[in-house]
């Protein structure tokens, strides 16, 4: 059996009285692209925020490369190869593109690799990040995570608010990241699109997984299509 890079077992997240995640179990094989899809409020962000150390789980166990990381803080996880691109990008608009990348990691090598992958960021390195288009800002947010040279990257709604053509570009980049051997966990409301890009999918509703399987099978499953994907 291949060793799993990520396992999440019976994860629970609460905010006061709100039970956002109610016993979620999923896993990712090394080099795979796994997606968590579901409507607004289904618990997707809470799950990946728990994995990346941004939110403290109420229960359950998370392992990364065989080590228990259930209560490891985010900065230590970044140093060990697990990084998240947060929802809403959260780049610093008054800093330059290059300064934003340096916040990810000051290492020159990682930054040079990101410029190679995103020539548009190299061209705009001295510009204020806030002057970039929405798609460029998303590339910058992904680039800032990649400078840490992660083995697992968590992406929270990378297509949010972007024009269809730009969404295509972002999914192209996600495919390249996966092709380079980095494992990807992708959270998306754009379920059809995410499942098309993924190896394995988990459909969430009300903080629980209601369907899971190879992404191609979920795309073919009438119950999933009718309830979560809608007509094309
Ligand atoms: P979205 O696409 O809107 O981010 P989501 O599927 O990622 O949705 P979560 O953001 O994880 O879902 O939210 C799950 C539930 O937890 C929702 O009912 C939400 O209102 C609630 N919730 C999320 N964050 C908090 C918080 N900081 N305090 C209180 N409730 C929260």
Explain what this protein looks like in three dimensions.
The protein has 232 residues and is α/β, with parallel strands linked by helices. Helix content is 37%, strand content 27%. It has ten helices and ten strands. α3 packs parallel to α6. The chain is globular.
Give the SSE layout.
Blueprint (H helix, E strand, L loop, with lengths): L5 E10 L2 E11 L4 E5 L6 H8 L7 E6 L2 E2 L5 H6 L2 E4 L11 H8 L3 H10 L1 H5 L10 H13 L5 E5 L7 H16 L3 E6 L2 H7 L2 E6 L2 E7 H5 L2 H8 L3
Parallel strand pairs: 3-8, 3-9, 6-7, 7-8
Antiparallel strand pairs: 1-2, 1-4, 4-5, 9-10
Helix pairs in contact: 3-6
Bound molecules: adenosine-5'-triphosphate.
Family: Belongs to the ABC transporter superfamily.
Keywords: Amino-acid transport, ATP-binding, Nucleotide-binding, Transport
InterPro entries: AAA+_ATPase, ABC_transporter-like_ATP-bd, ABC_transporter-like_CS, BCAA_Transport_ATP-bd_LivF, P-loop_NTPase
Distance between the first and last residues' Cα: 37 Å
Question: What is the N-to-C order of secondary-structure elements (H for helix, E for strand)?
Answer: EEEHEEHEHHHHEHEHEEHH
Instruction: Please tally the helical runs, counting DSSP H or I stretches of 4 or more residues.
Output: 10
Give the distinct bound molecules: adenosine-5'-triphosphate
How many strands?
10
Class computed from helices, strands and strand pairing: alpha/beta
Family: Belongs to the ABC transporter superfamily.
Protein name: ABC transporter ATP-binding protein
Organism: Occultella gossypii
Keywords: Amino-acid transport, ATP-binding, Nucleotide-binding, Transport
């Amino acid at each position: 059996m291949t060793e799993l890079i990520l396992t999440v077992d019976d994860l629970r997240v609460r905010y006061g009285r709100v039970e956002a995640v109610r016993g979620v179990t999923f896993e990712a094989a090394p080099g795979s692209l796994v997606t968590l899809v579901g409507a607004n409020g289904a618990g997707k962000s809470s799950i990946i925020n728990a994995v990346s150390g941004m939110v403290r789980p109420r229960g359950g166990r998370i392992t990364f490369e065989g080590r228990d990381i259930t209560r490891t803080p985010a900065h230590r996880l970044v140093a060990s190869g697990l990084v998240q691109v947060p929802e809403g990008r959260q780049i610093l608009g008054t800093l330059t593109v290059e300064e934003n990348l340096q916040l990810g990691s000051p290492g020159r090598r990682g930054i040079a690799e990101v410029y190679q992958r995103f020539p548009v960021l190299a061209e705009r390195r001295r510009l204020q990040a806030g002057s970039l288009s929405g798609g460029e800002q998303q590339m910058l947010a992904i680039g800032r995570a990649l400078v840490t040279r992660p083995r697992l990257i968590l992406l929270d709604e990378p297509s949010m608010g972007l024009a269809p053509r730009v969404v295509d570009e972002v999914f192209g980049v996600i495919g390249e990241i996966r092709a380079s051997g980095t494992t990807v966990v992708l959270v998306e409301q754009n379920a059809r699109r995410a499942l098309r890009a993924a190896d394995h999918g988990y459909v969430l509703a009300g903080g629980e997984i209601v369907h899971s399987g190879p992404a191609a099978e979920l795309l073919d499953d009438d119950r999933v299509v009718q309830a979560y994907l809608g007509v094309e």
